[in-house]
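Hello support,

Our group uses your service weekly, and this is the first time we've seen a run hang past the timeout. The protein is Antitoxin. I'm not sure whether the cause is the sequence or the server load. Input pasted verbatim:
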Amino acid sequence: MKTFNIGEARDNLSQIVDMVLAGEKVVIGKRNHPLVKLIPLIEEQPIKKRVGGQLRGQIHIADDFDDLSEDILEAFEGKHP
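Update from on-call engineer: The timeout came from a worker crash unrelated to the input. Re-ran successfully.
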């Protein structure tokens, strides 16, 4: 793990970013006290695009799924204690 003070990091930012992207662990500190660790935001493997409809025909939703019973509706309206 390579440690840089803030001034060194500011002067060598491009090289430090290259180091982190190459897999090296880098810490930035102040007065030789570690403050932050740099990590790459680029994923090693690209995120796969999600495709819908994988369970089509395997799930059933009742026709009255969105209907509220009277007691639940009254509870939301504050009519039940």
